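ESCALATION

Customer reports they have been waiting on this structure for their group meeting. Please prioritize. Original submission:
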Amino acid sequence: MNGPGRFITLEGGEGTGKSTLIAGLQDALAARGHEVVVTREPGGTPLAEAVRNLALHPPEGETWSPLAHALLMNTSREDHLRNLIRPALARGAWVICDRFADSTRAYQSIDGVSLAQLMSIEAMVVGDTRPDLTLILDAAPDALAERRRQRNVSDVFEQKEAAFHERVRAAFLEIAENEPHRCAVIDALGSPETVLGAALATIDDRMEAS
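Update from on-call: job pushed to the front of the queue and completed.
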């Protein structure tokens, strides 16, 4: 099926089920005849994946400053946009990205980088390549604690205390409130089928994907 490329991003705290939803969306949209490109941030290209590893798994005993971390995320993003996302959109593909600039806003603002700084960097890196739709998977962090344990992932964000994850949730909900034309909040505690159904209904409503 030919048509304009579409850019969908998924956001939310740790363990909200983004990977499961992305797999469902990939199958459903491909069945409709779309070319679907699934990617993630930080990462998505060889250089961006190298930056991801450096940002999320610094050498033992070393830590990035909040600003340095934000710059690393945007360094990864610039390469990702230039070498994967923009070419895919240009040929009419639907791009589904696990995290994008909203995650940098949420996480790095909590770490202490001013929103003005983050938005300035984002404007330079992202430019006009804004998501057509951002699905924010939402749930109370304590309700997701067991999911996070089962994932057995250890990085600089997974290791944060519970209060940090609460602030992340609040930051994403604030983004959704401020940009309702772009963002839709979905209850992450539903069954995978329920979450997928809600996501597809939102896509159909907002983007006429059928």
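Sent to customer with the following note: The chain is about 55% helix and 15% strand.
Escalation resolved.
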